[in-house]
Here is the input.
Amino acid sequence: MLDFILANDNLPYVVAATVVVMLAVVEIMARIAGGSLGVLMDEPPALQRPATEFAEAPSLASWLGLNRLPVLLWFIFALVSFAIGGFLINLLLWLSADTLLPQEISVWLAFALTAVVCHLLGRQLNWQAGAEEETDNLCGNIGIMTLGKAIKGNPAEALVHDDQHHIHYVLVEPQEENIAFEAGTRVLLLQREGMIWRAIRFES
Here is the structure.
């Protein structure tokens, strides 16, 4: 089995699994130190990008669930799905034909499985539902847009601290038409309608 795992054709999936383990170790260490990987979403460089590909292709981002899950959580789900999908494809072939698919073929199949899994998770996992009561008191708090470009009718992700300094990722859209919030914009949360917060630009 070790020979199977360490086979060259399984290298992309080993790397993906290793990254997930490393993220878990870093998160544990951050928790011990009183922090979290989520804090990384507070600061540049990601927030300094004026626009992203998600603003240009919101339909693909929505289909993949990028507008429904925190980016770090989505990234972990994607890595886990890619690793499991790739290993599973090669394991089935290895058990049935004692061979492995070349990387050039298996990675595309694994990418396809990852996209489907992310789509299903984005639809089924309501990441805000568990924290809905906690986010009720975010009205009047200031958030920072983290991903995408929010316009009326097309919300994007923002990071907000509550009064206890806990981090929340919420979906935000402008209160008014013809206004856009790009990554790095500071916004003031006004009112929540379902899962979406209406906000205005915060000028300090």
About this structure: The chain has seven helices and seven strands. The first strand starts at residue 142 and ends at 147. Residues 71-97 form the longest helix (27 residues).
